[in-house]
Design a protein that fits this description.
Layout lengths: L1 H39 L16
Protein name: Hydrophobic protein
Keywords: Membrane, Transmembrane, Transmembrane helix
Length: about 55
């Protein structure tokens, strides 16, 4: 009975980790797209040149 529970626990952990990693990949893709779009829609800075869209 213990080996069966260990196998089920391992399967549950791997499924959870796989789902979390897949969700993190989608979040990373969304952040990358927003970051790239920020370079395309930068506001004009002083003197007519394009400024940075981020604050740092």
């Amino acid at each position: 009975m213990v080996p069966l529970l260990l196998v089920l626990l391992l399967a549950l952990i791997l499924f959870g980790a796989g789902f979390a990693l897949k969700a993190l990949w989608w979040i990373a893709v969304v952040v990358l797209v927003v970051w790239l779009l920020g370079f395309l829609v930068r506001p004009a800075g002083s003197g007519g040149r394009r400024g940075r869209w981020y604050r740092w």
